[in-house]
Fold this sequence. Notes:
Layout: E1 2-7, H1 12-24, E2 30-37, H2 51-76, E3 84-91, H3 95-106, E4 110-114, H4 122-125, H5 128-136, E5 141-144, E6 155-160, H6 168-181, E7 184-191, H7 198-210, E8 215-222, H8 226-236, E9 241-246, H9 251-258, H10 261-264, E10 272-276
Parallel strand pairs: 1-2, 1-4, 2-3, 4-5, 6-7, 6-9, 7-8, 9-10
Antiparallel strand pairs: 5-10
Amino acid sequence: MKKILLPTDFSENSLNAIRYAINLYKEKECKFYVLHTYLPVIYDPQLFILEQADYMLEEVYKKNAESKLEKLIRKVEKIAGKNHSFEKLTSFNMLIPAMEEIISNKGIYMAVMGTQGATGAMDILWGSNTVHALKNIRCPLIIVPQNYTFKKPTHILLPSDFHFNYPLEILKIVKEICSTYQSKIHVLHVLMDNHVDHEVANSKKLLTHELQDCKHEFYTKEGLSLVKAILEFEENFDIDLLIMVNNKHSFFRNLLFTSPVSKIGFRTENPFLILPTGHKS
């Protein structure tokens, strides 16, 4: 049984992400943990003269959150698969620490979050919680764009600089999606120069071996920035899901957190699956 974490702030964006997760694993046995975190918007020391006041305020937030979660779960159960179950979770905490604790304690397989769909800097484009999740969450994480309507992931884009060997455990989730939907993986290598070294050739060979049971094809692009190559490829090949691996040396981190993209936003219109190294399904 897959355990999937679904954080929600009760917005339409988070509801859309929940719908995506349910549809993606419609035929699988899943337990969905629907999480809402809450903290006082304004902290006034005069309100916390007594310890009891602190406790009472937390109880008010908790009851309100639980009531909203019950209504949300009843709503999404109408589209759930026959082997789906739901559990509501509330936490008097910031979102990312709460998610990290639940992922560790519950053995979470995947988390799915929505974006707020604004423009501008990445923390506005995706929301600061999403950006913090991208940096810190250590389980597979799917980011679902605002207003995205579920499509079967029949075409998957996997950009790689091939300076990293993909461990088998982090590819299991990709191979399972391919098996379920008969997907084709498009592996995109963006050449920053005309040199292909031994490390790149060896990494490509290893990835070919790992994907031997999946339909896949390799592509090489030259003379384009990484961002432009990805967005152009998504459009030309009608991509349904973008996948990247997140480790501290990967070009995923260079793409999102050290390049100009971190200032202008990475405006992919597709769901974005981030695979952390070291994850075991």
